Amino acid sequence: MEEDELEGSKGCALEEASSSSSTSWLSSVAKSQTLLGSDELNKHLVERRAVVQLTTWNMGSLPLPDEHQLRKIFYHGDIIQAVDVHVVAIQECWPDADALELQMQMCLCPQFALFHSVSFGTLHLSIFLRRDLLWFTTESVEISQTLRSGRLFKTKGFIAVGFGLFGSRFLFINAHLSAGDDSDRESQRAEELKRVIGIAKGNMSNSSSYDATFLCGDLNFRISRLKRSTILQELKNDNLDALLKDDQLNNLLRNVEMTKSSLNGFQEAATISFRPTYKYDLGTDNFDSSSKKRSPAYTDRIIYKCKSLPSNEPLVSCLSYESVKDLKTSDHRPVYAIFNVIVRPGFDTLPLTGAQFKRDVFVKAVQQRAKFLLDRRKKIASSACSVM
């Protein structure tokens, strides 16, 4: 009887060990086969970091530049090779947003695909992802709203798009605020900026879950208390600090009392080291020579807010913050920031997109680019034959 009980206890022990081993194996397999988990994240993003390039540009409602000109908003030296996500925010967009999307897709083909885009009046926001990262995105949400009424109904307002990459969530906002040099306009812009952030985050599902919020656009902040002649002289002396000291947005972000609101925690991408981005005579480096002679200003800006790791390391750090000096088709210079963003693993219970992207735009861009390259080869071959 004792031998039977001993054999039975051995059997139970073996079964438990087998069950435990099986459960451990299944857990290991499940972990390695999750789409948004650590293994895939480590495989596709080195050190779990994504490089995000955010560009803002007021096109002035002028015709779309050719591909050679437009490429200047994407390519800024060797660091472009490491970019994983391109976000482009346009204000006063050329009327044909479809043509703009196609042209940008042609500039980025075939490494990137247009994941999501939104148009609202003269505002446009587009998000391009490295093609292999499309599988690891979660569903996007969006909101667009005007800040004005009457004829400015859709020229002053904002677009916001939120989406997930692996287990991290990001919110991007493109805003165009009120213009004007008067002091009352400065207060109006400050209120509009706080309102934009409040509305955008308040209308997004579970807005507190965003790891980082990026806001950019033609924010129209000016340089206070300095005459145009003084600004031009300081620029001639390369004394940017004198201008930035009186920059309205800098003062707003520094003012603790005013930032006890939706603006709390926001900071500029980095310290500005470039010349004012507004207002230029078209095709030149000359500031406004029209009868209005508007004062130079840093109207085009990028600010952000992010969470931190338990070690207090911010999830977002800025690698570069510059203007695109060589793109002169508008009275504004484009501004871009390149960010290093820490990405967290996620769970497959999140609402996956299934690698959704704007397939029609991608296919058309690839085909047009292939035709362009083929025509160029034929032209080169024909020229070579003529020489011989």
From TrEMBL:
<dbReference type="InterPro" id="IPR036691">
    <property type="entry name" value="Endo/exonu/phosph_ase_sf"/>
</dbReference>
<protein>
    <recommendedName>
        <fullName>Inositol polyphosphate-related phosphatase domain-containing protein</fullName>
    </recommendedName>
</protein>
<dbReference type="Pfam" id="PF22669">
    <property type="entry name" value="Exo_endo_phos2"/>
</dbReference>
<dbReference type="InterPro" id="IPR053321">
    <property type="entry name" value="IPP-5-Phosphatase_Type_IV"/>
</dbReference>
<dbReference type="InterPro" id="IPR000300">
    <property type="entry name" value="IPPc"/>
</dbReference>
<feature type="domain" description="Inositol polyphosphate-related phosphatase">
    <location>
        <begin position="48"/>
        <end position="347"/>
    </location>
</feature>
